[in-house]
Amino acid sequence: MENVAPSSSNSPSKAGKVDDINMEGLSLHEGIRDWPVCIIVLGMAGSGKTTFTRSLIEHAQAQFNPYVVNLDPACREVPYAAHIDIRDTVNYKEVMKQYQLGPNGGIVTALNMFTTKMPKFTELVRRAGERGHKWCIIDTPGQIEVFTWSASGNIITEGLATMFPTIIVYVMDVVRSACPTTFMSNMLYACSILYKTRLPFLVALNKIDLKDCGFIQDWMTDFEVYQDALEQEQSFVNNLTRTMSLTLDTFYENLVTCGVSAKTGVGYAKLLQHMLDCVAEYERDYKPVYEKMRLQRLAEQLAPAATAAHIDEAGTAVPMGLDLSEPTNQDDNSVFLMAPSLVPQQMNADETELELDSKGKVEEQNFQSFVQTHMSAQQSKRDKQQRNQETKS
Ligand SMILES: Nc1nc2c(ncn2[C@@H]2O[C@H](COP(=O)(O)OP(=O)(O)OP(=O)(O)O)[C@@H](O)[C@H]2O)c(=O)[nH]1
Ligand SMILES: [Mg+2]
């Protein structure tokens, strides 16, 4: 295809790497583009993200001609032809060796290094859109927290969402979630990602060829059914789980789920429909927010001197590059292991106080409105139950 090279993987291109791309027209001056729609595939280790990605490519090929990105630096091989493969840009084993890191540290650092190429990455995605790729599917590392809680995961997600319509598909293993407490952990993860990423969110209940996903949908819609399942399980975390499930009630109400089998392809027609709904949701509800963020970024870009002063406070620039053994050029080959949003702002004491005060107020208001919504949801549930009982008697 084009600018990205194959590695040990079966990438379709022979031409180069993310690093080889010449920057052309990608700029924050333009508004959010219509294409490609970026689909970030997340999920716990072994939930089936990579198999899901392969199957999604097959089902979307004719209509959306997906552009495919593998962001898992530690996988041995991927069962699809990736247009961009992080393994072509960063050698994860070499990173571990050079920085004396364990596997997880190696993955985080590899992702950080890839993130330093973010402008080139987004430029490739933009060009893919111009060539008729309507979707860009992004497979992520096995250790979900590496992507969801690292600065680089944040930068990639926000970076994409400020330039292209972006949605999250959370892959959940139905078989492993048959245990109510595991289900709850999975849901807490999903919930935290939903609130953290602020993007349209779809849960793909995967592996339905092995187990029907109806029980999960029942647990999410009927609190008592979940409580009954929990009763069967002898576990000391039951009380906590029970309380958590009450809290997650509001989250379930707006959560879209769809049963699929990444292995057999069952459920994908419905899944594609849900994904299109998510794209419409991005356009309607999220785009204005990201548009605002884009303008903010643009303003920051136009004030380079001020930013440089802030970067000084963020720590030391770590020299990084493609070939770790080569001496690197500090100017274009360095990365700060801190998200731009975390770089401390220089403010005088009054401004800081004001800022904290208004932040505190917003958080308090958010919390109050969360409690209100939760309480009214609970109340309407109780009313409904009472009405049902009255009808029965
Ligand atoms: N039966 C069945 N097995 C599946 C399905 N999806 C994935 N698997 C199997 O689940 C295992 C893990 O699948 P992967 O696609 O590697 O999962 P992953 O989330 O990418 O794994 P990591 O990247 O290591 O976190 C493999 O053995 C797959 O064959 C499915 O729908 N049905
Ligand atoms: Mg995988």
TrEMBL record:
One GO MF term on file is: GTPase activity
Cellular compartment(s) = Cytoplasm; Nucleus
What's its top-level EC category?
hydrolase
Major location, coarse class?
cytoplasm
Q: Which Gene Ontology cellular component terms are annotated?
A: cytoplasm; nucleus
What keywords would UniProt list here? Answer: Coiled coil, Cytoplasm, GTP-binding, Hydrolase, Nucleotide-binding, Nucleus
Cite the record's Polar residues compositional bias ranges.
365-379
List the Gene3D superfamilies: P-loop containing nucleotide triphosphate hydrolases
| Record's function text | Small GTPase required for proper nuclear import of RNA polymerase II (RNAPII). May act at an RNAP assembly step prior to nuclear import.
Listed under subunit, the entry gives: Binds to RNA polymerase II.
Q: Which family does it belong to?
A: Belongs to the GPN-loop GTPase family.
The name this protein carries in UniProt is GPN-loop GTPase
Gene source species:
Drosophila busckii
